[in-house]
UniProtKB/TrEMBL annotation:
CDD domains: Lin1944_like_SDR_c (cd11731). Belongs to the short-chain dehydrogenases/reductases (SDR) family. InterPro entries: NAD(P)-bd_dom_sf (IPR036291), SDR_DHRS6-like (IPR051122), SDR_fam (IPR002347). The lineage of its organism: Bacteria, Bacillati, Actinomycetota, Actinomycetes, Micromonosporales. It comes from the Bacteria. It comes from Asanoa siamensis. This is Short chain dehydrogenase. Pfam families: adh_short_C2. Gene3D superfamilies: NAD(P)-binding Rossmann-like Domain (3.40.50.720). Keywords: Oxidoreductase.
Length: 202
């Protein structure tokens, strides 16, 4: 399969490596590096990118920025930029790719542990992650042409120790493990699933 992978960070790199080792062709995309350039907050750039790389069989998103902050102090800009990036950015990624992806293709988006487990100052992250997961579950019932959509929900990355203080008591997951979850979502006939790489008490 030809897979378009968004994101040049540790997860994006791991997804690319995992997919290539499994024999898939990968086209990498980010704002500044990779085989293609696009900004997920700018739908026009996504439209242009997908038109230039079509046809393709799958899209994997490992992008989206959320700005944390105490609820009482979080600014309009923090809310708007977080929703525009990880929320609407990933939704528009799917919308822009729809005319170009092959029949039976798949989308894999990213949310995170804050969709159901909360840390201090996590209201923005929780809201946006639930936005992504809600979209995935609903879109799975509405996508045409046999298309599939899933979501990977990791906890804090082992490769990002600077985030550990924000997730006290959370067991880190490696980027390689996250990459395997993307492969699982892309290579198997599942849809509407949230693949969790974290432990909860629920």
């Amino acid at each position: 399969m030809k897979v378009i992978v968004f994101g040049g960070g540790p997860i994006g790199v791991a997804v690319r490596s995992t997919l290539e080792q499994a024999g898939h062709a990968v086209v990498t995309v980010s704002r500044t590096t990779g085989d293609g350039r696009a900004d997920i907050t700018d739908k026009a750039s996504l439209d242009a990118l997908f038109a230039s790389v079509a046809p393709f069989d799958a899209v994997a998103s490992a992008v989206g920025v959320v700005e944390p902050g105490p609820l009482a102090e979080a600014t309009d800009e923090q809310w708007a930029s977080s929703i525009a990036s990880k929320g609407m950015g990933q939704i528009n990624l799917v919308r822009a790719a729809l005319p170009h992806i092959t029949d039976g293709g798949s989308f894999t988006l990213i949310s995170g542990v804050l969709a159901e487990e909360f840390t201090r100052h996590s209201a923005i992250g929780a809201t946006v992650n639930n936005m992504v997961e809600g979209f995935v579950k609903a879109a799975a019932t509405d996508l045409p042409r046999g298309l599939r959509i899933n979501c990977v929900s990791p906890t804090v990355l082992a490769e990002s120790p600077h985030y550990f203080p924000y997730f006290p008591g959370y067991e880190p997951v490696t980027a390689a493990e996250v990459g395997m979850a993307y492969l699982r979502a892309i290579a198997n006939p599942i849809t509407g699933r949230i693949l969790k790489l974290h432990k909860t008490n629920s």
